[in-house]
């Protein structure tokens, strides 16, 4: 659910001169729509880094969905109950319901020597190509904008955000995240979900605006 106070804070960051880029496991349609109606930078990283969207007609696809479908078919044959999650169309990944043992599935993909990995966004399980994650997607978006990862602040709450936390100049984790996610962040805020995002954004605007002043 969209948290309106957080959207307002993101718009304030944009007005202060920061670029705000959404990097999400959701579809390119959802991510770019959020950027447009959220009033943030008009470029979006979606499908856990597999797609960069610059306009409704411009998509840079980094992941190979065909390989992901091979992995899905293998898992469907080996594990009972594996099924697609009803979501907006995907160009680079396969999205599955969270109703099976993800560790077992990872092992099966490894046994079949498929260049794939599974991640848990808490919304769904995602099959992505090895080498494609939110940071690789963000890196491509930053290249388009002429920016560097070392100058970025990553804010997140999921294991899919860990590549961002490890590679951006600063990172903030929301209070409801799992401990393994928090351990990879520069800082953890106490608030959760939408309020946590507001707290993180306010910290960014205070800390980094003061540094630039």
How many domain units?
A: 2
Percent strand: 15-25%
Number of helices: 8
Distance between the termini: 35 Å
CATH topology of the largest domain: Rossmann fold
What's the overall geometry? Answer: globular
Q: Average pLDDT across residues?
A: 94
Instruction: Work out the radius of gyration.
Output: 17 Å
Q: Secondary-structure element sequence?
A: HEHEEEHEHEEHEHEHEH
Strand order of the largest sheet: 1-2-3-4
The CATH top-level class label of the largest domain: Alpha Beta
CATH architecture type of the largest domain: 3-Layer(aba) Sandwich
Helical proportion? Answer: 40-55%
Main sheet specs: 4 strands, mixed
Provide the low-confidence segments as ranges: none
Class inferred from helices and paired strands: alpha/beta
Supply the CATH superfamily name of the largest domain: HAD superfamily/HAD-like
Beta strand count: 10
Structure description:
The chain is α/β, with parallel strands linked by helices and 213 residues long. It has two domains: 139 residues, 3-Layer(aba) Sandwich (Rossmann fold); 65 residues, Hypothetical Protein Ta0175, Chain: A, domain 2 (Alpha-Beta Complex). The protein has eight helices and ten strands. The strands form three sheets. Strands 1-2-3-4 form a four-stranded mixed beta sheet, with helices on both faces. A three-stranded antiparallel beta sheet has the order 5-7-6. Helix 1 runs parallel beside helix 8. The longest helix has 20 residues. It is globular, with a radius of gyration of 17 Å. It starts with a helix and ends with a helix.
């Amino acid at each position: 659910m969209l948290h309106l106070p957080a959207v307002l804070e993101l718009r304030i960051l944009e007005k202060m001169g920061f670029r705000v880029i959404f990097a999400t496991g959701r579809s390119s349609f959802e991510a770019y729509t959020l950027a447009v109606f959220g009033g943030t930078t008009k470029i979006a990283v979606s499908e856990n880094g597999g797609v960069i969207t610059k306009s409704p007609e411009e998509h840079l696809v980094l992941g190979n969905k065909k390989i992901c479908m091979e992995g899905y078919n293998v898992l469907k044959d080996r594990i009972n109950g594996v099924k697609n999650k009803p979501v907006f169309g995907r160009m680079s990944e396969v999205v599955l319901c969270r109703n099976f043992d993800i560790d077992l599935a990872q092992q099966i993909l490894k046994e079949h020597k498929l260049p794939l990995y599974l991640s848990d966004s808490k919304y769904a399980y995602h099959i992505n190509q090895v080498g494609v994650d939110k940071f690789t997607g963000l890196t491509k978006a930053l290249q388009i904008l002429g920016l560097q990862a070392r100058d970025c602040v990553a804010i997140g709450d999921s294991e899919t955000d860990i590549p961002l936390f490890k590679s951006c100049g600063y990172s903030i984790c929301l209070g409801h995240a799992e401990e393994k996610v928090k351990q990879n962040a520069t800082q953890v805020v106490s608030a959760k979900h939408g309020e946590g995002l507001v707290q993180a954004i306010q910290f960014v605007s205070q800390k980094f605006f003061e540094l630039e002043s």
